[in-house]
Amino acid sequence: MRHEVKRIILLVGLPENLSFTSFRHCGLTEIGDADMTDREILAQSAQTTAKVLPRYVKKTMRQVANGARKHRAARTDGGQMSE
After folding, report:
1. Is 29 in contact with 60 (CB distance < 8 Å)?
2. Distance, CA of 63 to chain centre
3. Rounded distance between C-alpha atoms, residue 15 and residue 1, angstroms
4. What is the DSSP letter of 46?
5. From residue 56, how far is each of 35, 41, 76 by CA, in Å?
6. Torsion-angle region of residue 55: left (phi > 0), alpha (psi -120 to 50) or beta?
């Protein structure tokens, strides 16, 4: 499959340094931005262990913002702490 992807990349005039893995990284980063859990990402990517996720799911500002929002919600949930 790798050779076929490379052939198509060159055929459509994309940069020569792109590979099948480039698309995998991009797709999994988008999934990470979609606020999916590690289990959901594993199911979508056909990976077998969460250890590989940091390699493929790159940290983005959207993920940082989602994490901060969840953290604030958890701190203020149930009246334990106010903002």
Report:
1. yes
2. 9
3. 18
4. T
5. 15, 10, 32
6. alpha
